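Quick check before the chapter quiz. The format below is the same one you will see on the exam, so make sure you can read both the input and the output lines.
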Amino acid sequence: MHPAQPPEVSPDGADPTEAGVTELPALTEPAVPTEQPSRTLIRRGPLQGLPVEVAVLSAVAFFVAAGFGIVAPAIPVFARSFGVSRTAAGAVISAFALMRLASALGCGRLVNRLGERVVLGTGITIVAVSSALAGLSANYGQLLTLRGAGGIGSAMFSVSASSLLLSVTSSGQRGRAMGAFSGGFLLGGIAGPGLGGLVTGWSLRAPFFLYAGTLAAAGGVGLLMLPRRTRRRGQPAEQAARSLLTVREAVRLPAFRAAAGVNLADNWAAVGTRSALVPLLVVEALHRSPIWTGIGLTVFTLGNIATLTVGSRLADRKGRRPLLLAGCLGSAAGTALLVLPHSLPLFLVAMAVFGLGSGLLDVAPGAMLGDVAGGRGGTVVAAYQMAGDFGSLTGPVLAGLLADTAGFSASFALTTAVLLAAAGVAFRAPETLRKAEPNRT
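Here is the expected output.
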């Protein structure tokens, strides 16, 4: 008796024999995984049933985000202390982001070759050392160079951490895992800036040393508590290499294109446009004190928190695609409200709606990426993160240019269009959640 043959799959990942199929052979886990260590599961608490690596990575994410929040307020001010222009001060921030983007694929290849644990620890160490040395900078050139080096380390950390998180979890766990990981970043982002402002008032150099300390602690936790990469016993290295999903293969899959496109749009809107335009909108269009910028961003963050936990569970129960659509449309609704004539109440309502939609996008795209890639390729995770970094870089520039030439309303209209375009890509993607898949143990 011959075993049943799997259905034939077209190059774009669709099953030609059945429309609307949600479980595609192109999205299943490899028959021989590249990683198969035994997993210790969390027994109690909100992360019950998830691999312990999820808790470790979430804790590491908290310390990394808190440390970045501490140093972020000091970077442009410290750069200006060397007598450079505002543009040059901004270039220090851009250098970090550009090096993240430029080095991401190389970091993905390192993950494939060396394993997530080693690359994660090395990346955090690079950021920690470069940050400490940046605090000792004697001139602007040294500061610019060291922040660029930190961007490489940041790419190593983010690619390896995401790769490990997605590879140790099953399809039915990835929504909750992404929610916990994003929650670590979110809570760290809340805790860091307040302390950073206080430390910056005391010394412009001290935040860099404090950031290095938090990163050293995070790197130590990662190296000590995360397992080494292993292959299934008897699996040759060549076979493991063949099971890796390549970027070229991933780009052919509608689900990967949807996840990457939504990640780009979310970073364009929530990281780029929000950070670049909201402070200016409050001061220049609403004619309010900068304190209302903080209030608006707090409302946005509360919206994130409100949907992050619920969204992570829904992603594992109802699927990724509905949350992709709801997140894009919710975020677009928030930015569309900012297109209307500006008023303080409308601004606060818009930030709340924007935050609710963005919270869903902290979970669903990453979970869909994990369904596509699993443990089959650090370069695929790197390509996904490059899409987000591209949105973070281009969003502020293009939105700012449009705000200068046509006003804030036109700029937020562009962001709304980007989010709606991402929703269109998500609408055409298949559902990737495999509900019947048992949890890995």
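If your answer matched, good. The mean pLDDT is 83.
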